[in-house]
Amino acid sequence: MSACKVENCTICMTSDAVCDTCTSPFVLSGNVCSCPNTHLAVRSGCQICASASPGCVTCKQPDIATPTVECQSCFANFTLAAGVCTCASRNCVECEPEVAGQCRSCLPTHFLNGNKTCVPCSIMPLCSECLFAGGIVCRKCISGFVMANNECTAVPPNCAQPADEVVCARCEDGFALTAQNTCTSCQAVAHCEKCIMRRGVVSCYRCENQLGLTRDRQCEKCDAVLRFDSPQCVCGAAENCGNCDASGTACQECFRGYQKIGGVCVKAKCQVENCFTCSDRPDSCMVCDSDYDLTNRDTCQHRCSGQPQQGSFCKETASRTYEWANCPFKPEEISQMLMPCVCGEENNCANCDFMFQNRCGKCLNGYQEKMGRCVECAAGFAKQESNGICVKVIIPEEVKPGLSAGVIVGIAVAVVGIYRSGCWSRYRCLRCCKEARASSDRAGNCYNRRLTIYFTAVNQCAFLQKWCLPKFNCSVTIT
């Protein structure tokens, strides 16, 4: 026996150029040691087919025509299709390559038992995904349930994304997330389809089909007249409508501040800095960007860092930083407040009660104090429906001299569309006082010789009479 010169040969009996036995796993074929069909030829030697293609017993060596490994036969628990072996054991992710019917790993909805078979997680009540670690451990519950203390517990009612068994992160459509992380129905506002919570009150932002959203966030029947003071009328999938076409699925006219481009109502760019969503006006914010809060003027102010103390409010400093400051008591300082004072869970406080810090002392301008709560507008103030804040109704002494007849007629024409079809449900039509330029309040009394429209007082009565309704000459919004 001589030293072999044949590559991968271990025994040469008669000549060093004639191989008798090859190195394992090579096989002898025509005095050449080659990889068997159960292996692939690689630089380091032979590699089993299963290492390149799981479940593969025999395979074809890649070549120029077929550059990938093509399996020719599979283990018993695999199925051959198009040169690939697929695990045939039910609910297996990875089969045991050499033992029929056994798995190495299972789908998330099953666990691997001691017999290496996949068992459904549903044997554990309400469980959809699990694993086996000395026992069955549930990792995910079925829809409508959440993990709590290693058990599946029902999620809070009407919750789409629970944080745990009592706290909700996101509500289903038709419900709003409260400060207590529970879900309350949008139907607190009649015919409301989608809403949010604002200052502890349900605020609607989308009504049911063919209904429009008024400035005070109520849902009313779509009307061409209402579009001048009402946000989107719901017309099927169409958005930002003032009213619907005959089909009820498209806009006939766009809401104020929008224009129709290619049959679609497109809103003008929001003008409020750091605003995520403007309301019905481009200068009035409804939802601010992250880290910003809505002020009582519908603008966005940067949120103060840290936790607030009772009797403090978030204030902008002269250097445009934002810090927690003591709530003011002087009227002139209260009038400049943009954010409410922190007084327990109360809303719209200007400062807190001396004796009971969790109750309001003074209210923000426009609110009246009742039993420690600021609940409604005071006399001489009108509520901004977009955010619930009350603002002072400013009544000028006279219309400025030099106002041309054309301007006056223009104002009259602008408002005639409101009165021609009658009053809106939230307004009340009243007779004007006989005296020229006078209007009446809700009790029918003369009110400062002015009529208030859109919270702006103007001398309207004298020249509006010929356009008003026959019996009711003026519509006022004075509270």
Structural commentary:
Keywords: Membrane, Transmembrane, Transmembrane helix. InterPro entries: EGF, Furin_repeat, Growth_fac_rcpt_cys_sf. It comes from Spironucleus salmonicida. This is Cysteine-rich membrane protein 2. With 479 residues, this protein is mostly beta strands. It has four helices and 45 strands. The strands form 22 sheets. A three-stranded antiparallel beta sheet has the order 27-28-29, with no helix packed on it. A two-stranded antiparallel sheet has the order 1-2. A hairpin with a 2-residue loop joins strand 9 and strand 10. The longest helix is centred in the last third of the chain and has 16 residues, at 405-420.
Number of strands: 45
Computed structural class: mainly beta
Q: Percent helix among the residues?
A: under 10%
In spatial order, strands of the major sheet run 27-28-29
Rounded radius of gyration (Å): 38 Å
What fraction of residues sit in β-strands?
35-45%
Tally of helical runs: 4
The major pleated sheet works out as:
3 strands, antiparallel
What distinguishing features does this structure have?
mainly beta, 4 helices, disordered C terminus, Furin_repeat, three-stranded antiparallel β-sheet, 479 residues, 38% strand, two-stranded antiparallel sheet
